[in-house]
């Protein structure tokens, strides 16, 4: 069926907004269960593995999944989707955000401050905190992610530089949180190694974090913005088709919806995309052949 669209921009924008508003609001119970369940499972891995109740190889596989999946529930909290700022219960949004992202070893306030800057300046070489993940191909993006985490890697320095340049109270708090988390990471690894659990520390924390960061850099930063040469509301990101599908790409096939309407919860972006698709086509968005 052919959908007839209005030709004037104002009417098109009004129709777009009306559709999007249907997917905004409410309590995202799936994301809440995902975040808290994932954190509980990750926490349980430590006693189960250290006591021998769970084989280390199984603990490693589960840890990789848990650490990788710890970011997205926090991502909804970064946009105040769990509990809106207008609510007196908004502190639960903040508490949730701090807890669920912990397995990734990334402080909530650091993640939120840099992520919101990414939204404001997507694909800007000077101002986008995520710009250093961009590369000409998928293989190059993975290699770039690994390089960025080396002691002199550009990616590690960039986030600190962005926060220092901002100089806001939120940015300063984010920097302090990042320093404290890095110290905690080192203390935990050293403490476990000193206690005779170096292999366990590597397979339950260090290596899963490296795998998770590579995955997140690829699917949440590189793939939805590639080739990262344009800016503007309808061109700074895109829809794309992943060989692993929507679940395997953590819902990022529809990342364009998130940039257009950041307070649509992650699991509702596919439905919003399907309804908004004719409008996005009219707007000249890059949809990568994704039908819905």
From TrEMBL:
Any idea where the Fatty acid desaturase domain is?
Answer: 54-284
Q: Name one Pfam family in it.
A: FA_desaturase
Can you tell me where the transmembrane regions are? 23-48, 54-72, 183-207
Set out the biological process GO terms recorded for this chain's protein: lipid metabolic process
Superkingdom in the source lineage: Bacteria
Spell out the InterPro entries in the cross-references: FA_desaturase_dom
**Among its keywords, does the record have Chaperone?**
no
Give the record's keywords alphabetically: Membrane, Transmembrane, Transmembrane helix
Q: What is this protein called?
A: Beta-carotene hydroxylase
The beginning of the lineage is: Bacteria, Pseudomonadati, Pseudomonadota, Alphaproteobacteria, Sphingomonadales
